[in-house]
Amino acid sequence: SLSHQIVQLVKDATRDAAVVKSFEAAKGLRSQRPDKDIMRSYRFHPSYDITFTLIVPEPQNVNVEWDIEAGTRDYLQPLLDSLLEYTSISVTSQVLYLVSLGGKPKKGDNFYYYTEQDLPHIINPLETKLGSHASNSPALNFIVGIPTQDRSPLYILDSNGEKLPSNAFLSPRWGGILIYNAEQDNATISSSPAQSIQVNMHRVMEVFVSQIRLLLNIHAQMVTKELKWEIAGWLRCRCVENLATATSTLQSLAQLLEEIGNIVISDEIGKEVESAVASIKNSRQLLASGKLREAFQTAFFHPSLLELLYFPEDQKFAIYIPLFLPISIPIVMSIMQAVKWFKQQKKAKSE
Amino acid sequence: MAPSAGYTSIPAFLCLIFVWATTASGTPKDIFTEELFIKPLSRGYVYSHFQFTTKWNASIHDSNTFRHYRLFPKALGEVLAKYGVQELHLSQTQGLWRHKFWGYPVHDAPPGAELWVWFKPTVKDIDRAWTELVNAVSGLFCSSLNFLDSKNTVVPQWSYRPQGTAAPGYSTFSYHVRYGALPREIVCTENLTPWKKLLPCDSKAGLSTLFNAFHFHDASYHSLGLHIRPVCADVDCTEEAIELSQSLSVVTDVISTSHTGTPNWSLRSLFGNHLASTCPVAAKSTIFVELTKNEDSHMYRLTPDPSSTEKVTRGPDQHTYAVYDVQSLMKSGRVLNIAATFRDPPVLLSVEPPPIHVHRYITGYGLDKGGISCLIYNNMVVNQSIIYLDVLPWFTRVFFNSLTVTNNGTRLPFKVHYVPGKDRSRPHQLELSFNLWPHSVTQVSFTFTRAFLKWTEYPPDANHGFYIDSATITAILATSRGYTATPQHSSCLESIMTDNSSRFPVRLHTESLLVSLPTPDFSMPYNVICLACTVVAIAFGSVHNLTTRRFEKLDPSAKKGILTKVKGFLSKLRSKKASPEKQTNNASHPEDTDTSDNQNELKNENSSAKSSS
């Protein structure tokens, strides 16, 4: 019926199913089946770090240039600007020399390829050079890898044996990797003694922007391509996720306190717990009334890590034993003898 | 330079082409150079200094600079951007540089770790920025720099001035500088690895392939240095640039470590490897060997022949360098192994003391008081004014009235900046400025008293003692005898070849000192617990048993358990040993035997009770 269809349309537009999934995942329910969306995307955080890395394994043979500043400005900035109110995303880039992609590509007809099983090994040699000492925000790493000259061109084959058109893959909650074959990807090449490559930013950024969307759980709308509607749907998911995370954290905290009686909790944590409860109530009300933005702000507040500073029971035991055990043994034995004597007396009396 | 229209159209067109051509070729954003400096020292030692310089044509004050990196390491740039750092100087050293025998190094470093930072004028809370920066840097280099808190950080007033460009008046009041040192810090491969990772070529190509941890940690002295400062991009100083200089200095004792006992050295014997590649992203790759006392090769000969030999006049002294242009020497895929062969019998370089050298030591005896004396030798024929900085931990309480600066018994006038320490929050800081007379020894001395620490403040190895930081002596010399540092405007060693400065700033670090504090015996709590518990157990147990012992008659015909059998056997053994006569007596008195048996058995019960307690 028509009403049914309208309801279905609205549900799709507001991404109802995704909201429910987020809520359940954040609550930490163990009964749910593993879901690709939830496992792939990052949890919400007030800031993210996006890093673009260009891997040049043989700088003596190829001279690579990429205009990453222009690339991020043109392709990524609109998305980042629309998210500016809710989360701050910082974008950095670097070039790594004399590092190559891991794994061993196999030889095809006149090309080399990675299969799906090889993909986890590609990241390993790069991990040491990625990462930040200055920030705690979750990091999204996007890597453009230039294959070495003796392993070029390099493709990724899917499970059917077909070359992937994007030649890129995504690693859940980590980032994405794209293998850039110069001849095929419309790069401007000039062959002086060292081959010079100018990376085609359009090709690279369109893959990465779609990967960023998947990783941050911002889905393209089926009904309309409006960025605003995408953001609204994302907000709904995030809001619900924060609420669920906050309530589940508070619940587990209460459980922990019940189990371990003499934990020392600082006043700060107590205050945070109180404010978290207040924020949860507040944001629930706001959600019910449809004020998405405010609800979002207040829902994100949960207690931080707890410092366990208590005296374990068994250690207390160990300290007092050397003093009390030698004293207690003769006493216990005397008590036993006294009891025996009393029993004897009773027996004698009753006879 | 907008070209004027009209009749000058053709030259304007050419002008336009010229402008376009230069921008199309692109001014390089950053330049990386790698250099190695080898200087044979006296008595058969060889000083090798690796210098990796990255000069990035960007301004350190611009917030967008630290976003897109090419040759400058991103891990380091993020830390600099986040904490508002304008200059950062970090050194990690193992060993002591002996100025008297070896002259001056390119970058002088005290034993242990030393970090001093100038923050940008825009940083509001410098103490907080320092704490966070120190933690980030300690994570970046795997060293425990996070122990640099207020207890060992000072604000030097006259030493440690900014080495890069700065706005006028920036360093007048020293608001933005912090200095801290950890003399106890050990340098090992754990520190070399993250330091190597910051190089664009890592250790896969170029001079960094010569890094061999075994050879370095066998050396008499090795030091890792990291220096970041803003510099002028060009001679006119219209643009700013950021210069990152990573240096590794090693002093090897060639005679002791060679198999033949000769002072011949080569790249292979010093570093375990010959040079087989150059870094592809390096603009220049050069090796310099200082030939100052050996221009005519009468002491040793270098093979292969250098690309060029430069004679440089720095101040009143002349220096000669052999320059090897590695990139051109290795063009056709050859390998490079520079070797010095001494003639037979070898003649070594003679010891020539540098213009100024220092010796600092602890005086006094016992665990109550002590003193520090610093002897500063001036080997020049002119006066030299120096600045002396000494930082003492709070538990060596300095007596300021005991401070004297004497020269052969005559007291010298001095200018002083003294900040007394505060227990558990601030160290004692002493900064002096005075004149050294020609060809003389000046002595700075003061006394201190040792504090008694709380028992949780001792380090795990409490009886080792506590370290006192090196003192720093800063001077500007007029002679370059033994001087190897680069001129102020650039850290590349190549700039020495074109140096025409007449003043040579030098910084010396003295020995770090080890002082014993009155240390309690940490095994006492364990001893006390053992003793008290034993005494209580024995005394209580015995008294309790004595007072509550009851005698009961045993039935000899009753079935005896194993325990009573064993006890009976043992007691029989004991009575047999004790008195063979008694046994014969007992045999004639059977009743007595019973009671004595009973007594023995009762005794055994009590003794077993005692042993169980």
UniProtKB/TrEMBL annotation, chain A:
<keyword id="KW-0812">Transmembrane</keyword>
<dbReference type="GO" id="GO:0006506">
    <property type="term" value="P:GPI anchor biosynthetic process"/>
</dbReference>
<dbReference type="InterPro" id="IPR019540">
    <property type="entry name" value="PtdIno-glycan_biosynth_class_S"/>
</dbReference>
<comment type="pathway">
    <text>Glycolipid biosynthesis; glycosylphosphatidylinositol-anchor biosynthesis.</text>
</comment>
<keyword id="KW-0325">Glycoprotein</keyword>
<dbReference type="GO" id="GO:0016255">
    <property type="term" value="P:attachment of GPI anchor to protein"/>
</dbReference>
<comment type="similarity">
    <text>Belongs to the PIGS family.</text>
</comment>
<protein>
    <recommendedName>
        <fullName>GPI transamidase component PIG-S</fullName>
    </recommendedName>
</protein>
<keyword id="KW-1133">Transmembrane helix</keyword>
<feature type="transmembrane region" description="Helical">
    <location>
        <begin position="317"/>
        <end position="339"/>
    </location>
</feature>
<keyword id="KW-0256">Endoplasmic reticulum</keyword>
<keyword id="KW-0472">Membrane</keyword>
<dbReference type="Pfam" id="PF10510">
    <property type="entry name" value="PIG-S"/>
</dbReference>
<keyword id="KW-0337">GPI-anchor biosynthesis</keyword>
<dbReference type="GO" id="GO:0042765">
    <property type="term" value="C:GPI-anchor transamidase complex"/>
</dbReference>
TrEMBL record, chain B:
<dbReference type="Pfam" id="PF04113">
    <property type="entry name" value="Gpi16"/>
</dbReference>
<keyword id="KW-1133">Transmembrane helix</keyword>
<dbReference type="GO" id="GO:0016255">
    <property type="term" value="P:attachment of GPI anchor to protein"/>
</dbReference>
<dbReference type="InterPro" id="IPR007245">
    <property type="entry name" value="PIG-T"/>
</dbReference>
<feature type="signal peptide">
    <location>
        <begin position="1"/>
        <end position="26"/>
    </location>
</feature>
<dbReference type="GO" id="GO:0042765">
    <property type="term" value="C:GPI-anchor transamidase complex"/>
</dbReference>
<keyword id="KW-0812">Transmembrane</keyword>
<keyword id="KW-0472">Membrane</keyword>
<feature type="compositionally biased region" description="Polar residues">
    <location>
        <begin position="596"/>
        <end position="613"/>
    </location>
</feature>
<keyword id="KW-0732">Signal</keyword>
<feature type="region of interest" description="Disordered">
    <location>
        <begin position="573"/>
        <end position="613"/>
    </location>
</feature>
<feature type="transmembrane region" description="Helical">
    <location>
        <begin position="524"/>
        <end position="543"/>
    </location>
</feature>
<protein>
    <recommendedName>
        <fullName>GPI transamidase component PIG-T</fullName>
    </recommendedName>
</protein>
